[in-house]
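Worked problem 6 (solution included).
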Amino acid sequence: MAEAIFIYLLKQRSITDKWIVDSAGIANYHVGKGPNRRAADTLRNHGISDFQHRARQITEDDFVTFDYIFCMDYYNITTLEKLAQRLKVPKKAQIDLLGNYDPDGEQEIEDPYCAISMNEFEQVYQQCLRSCMGFLDSLNK
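Solution. The predicted structure is:
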């Protein structure tokens, strides 16, 4: 959801031409699959209906291609830092928690994949929205 929200905010600010946005997982569980139906429904409920995505696993190139790699939780940060060290890539990307930009201070964003209700997806949407807005706003300071 974070990728879709970030792209949506870039469109609202008319700055999509200045960004390359992508998302990837640390595991290969869902490689090639589209967005979770409940995530897509949540995005549609907020006017984001044009999101196209196929899941992929993070690659060595991502560390040198992107300026930022945002993680949802501390486990992902630790895993990516170890991966970058193991691969010995000249890391360009700043690895950070997306939630570090949440003005409400909720640093970790839980994966709602196993959630029973749509409430968890809505909560993640709101956290990602606040965090993406906070990040973009921080660049203008």
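Discussion: The longest helix spans residues 119-139.
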